[in-house]
Structure prediction request, 1085 residues.
Amino acid sequence: MRTPKQFNNITERVIDDLKQVLSFGNSKISIAAASFSIYAYEALKEELEKVDSVNFIFTSPTFYTDKTEKQKREFYIPKLNRERSLFGSDFEIWLRNQLTQRAIARECADWIRRKARFKTNVTHGSMNSFINIKNGDETYTYMPFNEFTTTELGLDRGNNICPMVVGMPGHSSTDMFLKNFAELWKDKAKFQDVTDKVIENIETVYKENAPAFIYFITLYNIFNEFLEDISEDVLPNEATGFKSSVIWNKLYNFQRDAALAIINKLEKYNGCILADSVGLGKTFTALAVIKYYENRNRNVLVLCPKKLNDNWQTFRSNYKNNPVLADRLRYDILFHSDLSRDKGMSNGLDLERVNWGNYDLIVIDESHNFRNGGRFDSDDEYGEDDNYKENRYAKLMNKVIRSGVKTKVLMLSATPVNNRFSDLKNQLQLAYEGKAENINGLLNTGKSIDRIFREAQTAYAKWVKLPYERRTTEKLVDSLSYDFFQLLDAVTIARSRKHIVKYYSTNDIGKFPTRLPPISRRPKLTDLSDAITFSDIAGQLEKLNLSIYTPSLFIFDSVKDNYGIDFKGEGLTIDGREKGIRKLMAINLLKRLESSVNSFRLTLTRIHGFIKDSITAIDKFQKEGYGTIDITEFSEDLDTEDAENDPFIGRKSKINLRDMDYVSWRRDLMADLEVLERLIIKLKDITPQHDAKLQQLVADLKHKFEHPINGSNRKVLIFTAFADTANYLYEQLSGRILDDCGLHTALITGSTEGKCTLPKLRCTFNDILTYFSPQSKDRDVIHPNDTREIDVLIATDCISEGQNLQDCDYLINYDIHWNPVRIIQRFGRIDRIGSKNDVIQLVNYWPDMELDEYIKLKGRVESRMKATVITSTGDDNLLSNDENGDLEYRRNQLKKLQNEVVDIEDMDTGVNIMDLGLNEFRLDLLANLKEHPNMDLTPFGMSAVVSASELVEPGVIYVLKNKNNGVNIDHSNLLHPFYMVYISHTGTVICDHLSPKKLLDKMRYACKDKTVPDMALCKQFNKETRDGKNMRHYSDLLHSAIESIVTVKEEKDIDSLFSVGETTALTYNIKGLDDFELICFLVIK
Prediction:
């Protein structure tokens, strides 16, 4: 006969006594407890094998399915700890981390099938908890026994303050408990049998898992908080029917991911920058977003550069070649330059009557044109009495975004950042109306948005000063704060071409063509032996003072105020604008010389004419005593980009000669006249026959026509910065190409109607592009019976953005744009996803001088023409503050372009926002939860096996959760408290926990579409681990993975001791395995 006993689970443990009681065998056990753990079973396995039966009641509803309908908002299901505890309490985590859970679960499930039954109390009435063992006529009871876990058995301490359990032999009170238990066991209304559910849950541990399941388990745990935060208000509402639209069904998967993420960000943060790389179809993604909002009856404005008008017009017009005609899009289109105008017509809209404040969504194409920002509050730090005038940026902020209805802002740009983070801030603040308080509360960051950008710029400034070999992207990323990446994740979507190719199925998206190494040409100016050279001409250009462009500098001080007026809406004086024009023209002369002798000669002749006319006007004034100079006619020779961004084009302004020192001005004009006349005479002999560059182009075209690089594709796209050069090439080449080769040529300059050798073709912008690239532009839909094609297209940069001309496979830059990004954007017209061409070729025509010398020459011209910044916008802002740094940057990038075709994300100086966002993973999770809503019931510690590939090498990816705050004190882990480590089978860390985006990308790539287990790999893994009994190898790797997290933290601690601000050293320490629990792991074989 046993006596009553007390157990404190320290010196006297329940498990020791229980083993003794159960050792006799054939016992019948009754248990009423809140939870059951397989580890408690493991601890008593031998004894439980000998028992006759076990009846187990869960004292609270567990594994019980409530039949009431779930909340409509049910993306998130609260974690049910009682059900999770099958696989261990918090204090059994270390057991799970030994990775033997699988073998234990298999044995436990088998034992339950043979010996145990489970029921759950479906009422919310309370029950006493106990274990009762009946052996023959004798009974013995342990109570209270709250949970069947290793803690309650006394194997570990747990967090009970008073872990007392009493053991009692049978007497009237324990007999009453047992009688009560027997009655409840029979009550089917209040107690439901859940044995099969328990077995099913335990089976999930040892059945083979599909890799996709492990990927989604990872996402579910990491982004759980996101699910809690989410509401239907910020998710795309599918009831709008936008997923049945034509545009949605034309999108590739990666574009759909972006469209959904954009809607989410617009709803939550009011703005988003889509910064996908060139050639990834940002326009189509934006059209899907526009369709979503138009379906919700919202007013949409597209604000784009003038040159992209035809593109946007096509998608909303009743045109045969509108690929989304059935969607009946109805957005308004206005131009960036319209923000500088108060009246006049634009795209059929009267600017005086446009209700700028009534747009619910504004889509800004090429939003980098607004990256220089501007002052938009009249009292902003300058005082209210200042003569404040709005530039384009300020008008956009005040008239469109701040006024009227709440306006969401979607910005599209492949290059949102040039070489400073304020570029990004200026664009982003359009979304929060320039008021930081509007967004600070929405961002889950510890600092304000202004402080985040300030610190990021400081970090960047330090990084730029590092020696070249230490100036790596990794170094910059390390020095930027966690908050900065969190901000980028919140409001930007930026995927590179490499990212898309790597992580999306190419069956779905088609492929990018292979880039052949670029061909570099350096033709001389002419084949005439005694003619002037490029360097000679450059030397002569340095002698010019170009005062023809700055008459206002000669106005007498006494009357200057009369001319110091601002052009309305621009905030720039006449002489400020003139200095800018003079600088642009000095640079432009060099650009035009590089473009073509003909273009250069035309400009010299025009300037010569301007000067002669001005001298004549001065001479006439001296005779007659009156006369004025018109200062607006001097800006005709800018390239398309500079001309579009000059806010003064078309504005008249006159200076009375009586008000200026015309004698000094005339002297300067005469000096320039002599230089120009000398140059014009020397260039006279360089006719088209002796234009070496033109003859080189003829040879290259002939070679391409005779030796196509893809089947019989003979298409060539020739880019030049200047309309004069384009016209010259068309005049010289089109007839010869038609006569000698039977191929048709076309010309597009944007400034005038196009030209084409195809008879009876309306030479509109759209028609020319359609006949040049008939497949990508759906020519068969518009002209089904016309099979003629244009094979050579000569164009200016009016088509260097936003056009898909992928039928072509050969692109020639007849002149090298001074902004390297423009060269890549040009190439992006043919270097596009889904191209039918296997390979594509880029040919660059460089000036006939060393690149270093050429860049220095540009620097000399710029420094001689120091001037104010002339516009608030400008894609190619030559007037940068740090001109030497800018020149060095361009030199490095242009050098790179001589040998390889690079992506924009590889061009920049380290400011790269590509591949940092985590949004697509959240969207993956949301989509999966709709099909599998009960992921919260999944136990921790599960695994899958997947085969290695080129992108995912053999090893193990561990997903861990940190149980204290010890590792993220310096805010460097984007996923905290979750940690992912990718470690090879030899123990080398392939990817540490500070690269979560990279790790999730790899996991997504390895797992996402693999929805069934690879049974051959599972068999191999089971054999190697003896069905999970011998997990030593994987347990050791887990230790190494955790050590790597600790090591990285220690290194960061040491770094922090030597940096400004709070040190992270000694703040928290990590003991290792005990600080983490294993969520799941992926074995790559």
